[in-house]
Design brief:
782 residues; mainly beta; Maltoporin, Chain A; five-stranded mixed beta sheet; 42 strands
């Protein structure tokens, strides 16, 4: 919800520049003159509607208007403007999100830990182990980023923070719609387009429907160039003539959302929503620097098909003076994928002679090139009910209960054409290794927060969440008994229980209970100025290692100590918010690829994070000129060595002669400095309203992995800056805009990875920011 107001401004540009260097003095309130104010934003970060400036939590929020101005269409577009957020993403829909430096660079595949940042679509969690849903951003009311542990109200997987995507709801009594069309051209690549539209239909005084649809084609810009590879053991040479092509990594996305609002009476409302999206991607999104900028040489087809739907319902009403909200949802997500695993085949053959074991039915050594056919099926059922007392009372509360059940069926088929049936997994032709597993993560919680106004300006908040997690993993993983006499089929102890596996060699379950706490004290200096201090905890449930010889891993916790401020100055023409914090990360979960590129998870040790975040919005004295800036500084490091080994009881060793990462090692992924600034000037031009805008983003370098040797192999994720420019015209109901994103075509490293254990596959890939993109768009409202 966004409100526009006009007010008075108390200073000129020179005074502003001086004040930002010397602090913000009380004199800012003097010498006022008429002028605009900054945008007022209402958020629901604390699960109730509040002005952003009244919420004693570090929240960054983008309104519908701001999302449009920043050309936000997907996850990557808004994350670059969130200073406290970092991400690793090797493909669309596969992003692992981190906040405030709580990141270990851990392997984030299907057997990894649960995420440390929760992602919500309206009231429903949409986080999956394979990455947060990459929802197309259109007709979105807000994106909210809640930095720091949100363990009380949001619980599991909001250990380091929470991202919330809030959709625009149906409006009663209003018939309206809009559509937007865009075409673009990507440097070093092809052309793309976006078509999207919305209509809001009032059925009667109590019912309204809102329908949204989109169709997007993202141009590719990674080239798969012709090349060959020779295996040392067999002497076989392979080439990629059949699949070599330019603009290899194009993406097609389409989807729809339909929402209904039904007002039963003046106090009770039902809002069911159905949303679906289908994304097909080709190629890979990282390039191989040894081949060239934005180039790879891959030998087998690579693609992904990610489709999902979510059915959700919110019921909101009053019981006496108390507000009652129920929200429930069911999400179903399926991902089919094909991956080139040539790097694994080549490096294992080169270093260990593994190609000697890849033979046909006559015992002849053959081409060992592997490919992966993957099939993932996620479901999530979630239910929450909460009761809130009247907000005008001195003593207030919110209490509730939460339940969710996530399932993940995992099929990973590692295939080699023509291998001996005797070494292929039983019932699976050409399959050297098979994973057929079902993972179930259950979470139950009761939570509450109590708010007490000690004085009219001083408020104390206390919160607690009691939780129970119950996580299991069963099925089959491994080689055939003809290839391995100890693992895979040779280790089975029961008939098949999942999918079409040959038998069962893993069936484990782990349960945990615990509590997280929060305490906050906030003081309102006057209207528009507040300071606060917070102690909060966040957690992430433990789980099962699918290498059955390893012990389960336990929950890890983040303990947050924070002081922040929310201030508005000069009759609301200047908003300055920020926070400083210190966080302890205890027994953090670290997943890595062990022998046979097999995921293992340990509770690694301790780390600490120190940081500062700040945001500034200024409606300048120049009519129509607004400036928005945001920045963060994050110092995250180990406080004890990471050895990478376990003792006889399966517990991580915390003392060792040669640790993989010594105490003081910087945590990976998150840059120390991340900042952005946007200046927008709107002015009348004849019968039109014109605008010009420039947005600059910057982030410093970061490491790609926690172990020092792996980090050296992958290389530093380089610092980079990017400038986006746009200009356009608005006239009554329509608008047109020309934009140039990444105007100087600066290459940045968003992610560095290897396709198997880094110490074996020493070929790093770099996922870059998108090259310069020029687009023109037209939109109309009716």
């Amino acid at each position: 919800m966004v409100r526009q107001t006009r007010g008075r401004v108390a200073f000129g540009a020179a005074l502003f520049a001086t004040s930002m260097l010397a602090g913000v003095p009380a004199a800012l309130a003097a010498d006022t003159a008429a002028g605009p104010t900054v945008e007022e934003i209402v958020v629901t970060a604390q699960k109730k509607e509040e002005n952003l400036q009244d919420v004693p939590v570090a929240v960054t929020a983008f309104s519908t208007k701001k999302l449009e101005q920043l050309h936000v269409e997907n996850f990557n577009d808004y994350v670059k403007f969130l200073p406290s957020v970092a991400a690793q993403s090797a493909a669309p829909g596969g992003a692992t999100v981190f906040m405030r430096g709580i990141a270990s660079g851990a392997n984030a595949n299907h057997s990894g830990s649960l995420p440390s940042v929760g992602t919500y679509l309206d009231e429903q969690p949409i986080t999956t182990i394979g990455g947060a849903l990459d929802l197309h951003v259109y007709d979105i009311a807000r994106v909210e980023a809640l930095a720091g542990p949100q363990g009380t109200l949001y619980g599991a997987s909001s250990q380091a923070g929470t991202l919330r995507i809030i959709t625009n709801q149906p409006e009663l009594g209003v018939l309206k719609g809009s559509y937007d069309l865009k075409v673009n051209s990507v440097d070093h690549g092809g052309t793309g387009y976006v078509a999207e539209g919305m209509v809001n239909i009032p059925v009667n005084d109590q019912i309204a429907i809102r329908m949204v649809a989109w169709d997007e084609h993202d141009a590719g810009y990674i080239d798969n160039v012709p090349g060959t590879m020779t295996y040392p053991t067999s002497g076989v040479t392979i080439n990629n003539k059949k699949i070599a092509k330019n603009n290899y990594n194009d993406v097609d996305t389409y989807g729809a959302r339909i929402a209904l609002r039904l007002d039963l009476n003046d106090t009770w409302t039902i809002r069911p929503t159905f949303m679906t999206q289908d994304t097909k991607s080709n190629g890979v999104f990282g390039y191989d620097p040894s081949v060239g900028d934005l180039k790879v040489t891959h030998f087998l087809p690579e693609d992904g098909h990610d489709r999902w739907y979510q059915a959700a319902m919110t019921v909101q009403g009053k019981i006496s003076d108390f507000d009652l909200v129920y929200s429930g949802g069911y999400m179903d997500r399926r991902i089919d994928s094909h991956s080139d695993y040539t790097d694994y085949s080549f490096f294992y053959d080169t270093l260990f002679g593994s190609g000697a074991y890849i033979t046909d039915s006559h015992g002849n050594v053959i081409d060992p090139t592997q490919r992966i056919t993957g099939r993932d099926h996620f479901t999530r059922v979630s239910n929450e009910i909460r009761l809130s007392s009247p907000q005008d009372q001195r003593l207030r509360f919110v209490v509730g209960g939460f339940q969710q059940r996530q399932t993940h069926f995992i099929e990973q088929n590692y295939q080699i054409t023509g291998i001996d049936p005797a070494i292929s997994v039983t019932g699976w032709r050409d399959t050297l290794w098979l994973t057929e597993q079902l993972r179930i993560d259950r979470d139950y919680a009761a939570f509450g927060e109590l708010y007490f106004d000690i004085t009219p300006k001083l408020t104390l908040t206390a919160g607690v969440r009691a939780f129970k997690s119950d996580n299991s993993l069963r099925g089959f993983y491994g080689f055939s008994s003809g290839f391995s006499s100890k693992t895979g089929e040779a280790a089975c102890f029961a008939p098949n229980s999942v999918g079409h596996g040959p038998c069962t060699n893993l069936d484990k379950r782990v349960k945990e209970t615990g509590e997280t706490y929060k305490a906050n004290l906030n003081y309102k200096i006057d209207d528009g100025k507040m300071v606060y201090v917070t102690y909060s905890q966040g957690f992430r449930p433990g789980g099962i290692n699918r290498r059955s010889t390893l012990a389960p891993y336990s929950s890890d916790y983040v303990y947050n100590y924070e002081a922040g401020w929310k201030t508005q100055w000069a009759d609301n023409s200047l908003r300055w918010n920020g926070a400083v914090y210190y966080e302890d990360w205890k027994d953090f979960q670290y997943s890595f690829l062990g022998p046979n590129a097999f995921t293992e998870i340990l509770n690694a040790g301790q780390a600490q994070v120190k940081g500062v975040e700040t945001e500034l919005s200024w409606a300048t004295p120049v009519q129509g000129l607004t400036v928005n800036t945001a920045a963060s500084y994050t110092d995250a490091k180990l406080t004890e060595p990471y050895c990478g080994t376990v003792d006889a009881a399966g517990k991580p060793n915390k003392t060792c002669a040669t640790p993989q990462a010594p105490s003081g090692t910087r945590l990976p992924v998150t840059p120390k400095v991340k900042a952005n600034a946007t200046a927008r000037y709107e002015f009348p031009w004849g019968d039109f309203t014109a605008h010009v805008q420039g947005s600059a983003v910057y982030q410093s370098s970061s490491t790609a992995a926690l172990p020092v040797l792996e980090s050296a192999i992958l290389g530093t994720q380089r610092a980079y800056g990017q400038l986006d420019l746009s200009a356009g015209l608005d006239h009554d109901t329509w608008k047109v805009e020309l934009s140039v994103l990444n105007a100087f075509d600066k290459r940045g490293d968003n992610y560095r990875y290897a396709e198997c254990p880094t110490l074996v596959c020493s070929r790093p890939y770099v996922v870059p920011n998108q090259p310069r993109t020029i687009s023109i768009s037209f939109g109309q409202k009716f």
